[in-house]
Amino acid sequence: MRALKILLLLPIIALCFGCGSDTANKNLRFGTGGTGGMYYAYGTELAKMISTDGKTRSLDVKTTAGSAANLRLLHEKFLDLAIVQSDTLSNAVNGLGVFAAIGEGSGYAAVAGLYTEACQIVVAKNSDIKTVNDLVGKKVSVGERESGVLQNAEQILLAHGLTFEMLEPQYLSFADAAVALEKNQIDAFFITAGAPTSAVAELAAKKEIRLLSIAEEIQNNMMKLYKGYTRCTIPAGSYPNQTSDVQTIGVKAVLVASTDLKDDEVAYLTEFIFRNANTLPHNSGDKKLDTKYAVADIPASFHAGAAKYYDTQGVKVNVYSGKSGQTIKASQD
Question: Rounded distance, CA 181 to CA 285, Å?
Fold first, then answer.
């Protein structure tokens, strides 16, 4: 009987050991998002390029619900790397919102701001929805639970005097939301991602769509109220039949790494990203990635390995020292 119990426990013991923080001989677990978003596109392309380079461990790309899920999974040591929204990262670092129960962020640190993520609100071209206020009473996907999109959707609605209770909210991934709009099962959907986003581009190839703009005064109010937001333009032509620019709000996509990763490994990854920035997916409206953009307005301390690379470029950053909001170096000069 005792032998049987031991045999039954072996798979559980193996699983527990597999979830530990020691990744010395394993692929790096890289949290992205849903398959229809820019996180996934960026992660899969980076993984392919890293594999070809062959100078560090391979990246094992994981699909997740998005930013909030990625930060929780990093904290719990189920991921080694992840891409997250800067506004969600700010909440995690300070133990706010959905992170209040977890406390101030620890176990992960920033590597680089990668590109601007546009808050996109998609409707059918022939829809009677012309502004955000017209979403009242409509079936609207507001993003998956544990996604950064969910918070963006709520804050955009609040800035217009609306709440989820005034719509019929649906909690769908990018890909599922695009399918639902194509089939007229929903009236609109929110996504936050670099533009063009594959889920939206694929939808636009099948069905005529429009993206809603957010008025300048609403953008101003949101930037005053919430950390991490910036103005964002989705250039005309980003999607099929998009004939004019779309003015919206945006956040920064930030690569974060477990503080268990060795400094040299993170320094290499940081250098690799800058060296290959032009060929990695990004927002079409962004300029070329540089160190100034990568370290500006990042609401978390940096991994010592990333700091090692920035030091070679003459850039000083705050370095992680136990919690993602605590530092051991002076800020960038």
Answer: 25
Give how far Cα 55 sits from Cα of 21, 44, 94, 269, Å.
21, 17, 35, 10
Judge residue 288's burial from the number of C-beta atoms within 10 Å of its C-beta, 0-12 exposed, 13-18 middle, 19 or more buried: exposed
Burial class of 223 by CB neighbour count within 10 A (0 to 12, 13 to 18, 19+): middle
User: What would the pLDDT profile of 234-272 be if each residue is shown by its tens digit?
Assistant: 999 999 999 999 999 999 999 999 999 999 999 999 999
- Are 79 and 19 in contact by the 8 Å Cβ rule? The answer is no
Return the exposure string of 104-115: e unless at least 16 CB atoms fall within 10 Å of the residue's CB, then b: bbbbbbbbbbbb
pLDDT in tens, 121-156: 999 999 999 999 999 999 999 999 989 999 999 999
**Dihedral sign, Cα of residue 36, residue 41, residue 47, residue 52:** positive
CB atoms within 10 A of CB 9: 10
* Domains of the chain, earliest start first: 27-115+254-312 (3.40.190.10), 118-251 (3.40.190.10)
Give one word for 146, left, alpha or beta, with left for phi > 0 and alpha for psi -120 to 50: left
Task: Give one DSSP letter per residue of 154-165, joined into a string.
Answer: HHHHHHTT--GG
- Which of the two residues, 226 and 208, has the higher pLDDT score? 208
Q: Phi first, then psi: what are they for 316, rounded to 5°?
A: -100, 135
Q: Give tens-digit pLDDT for 148-183.
A: 999 999 999 999 999 999 999 999 999 999 999 999
Task: Identify the H or E element spanning 140.
Answer: strand 139-141
pLDDT at 22 over 70: no
Enter the tokens of residue 20. 């530990």
- 13 pLDDT more than 70: no
C-beta atoms surrounding 18 within 10 Å: 8
Rounded to whole angstroms, the Cα distance separating 282 from 113 reads 11
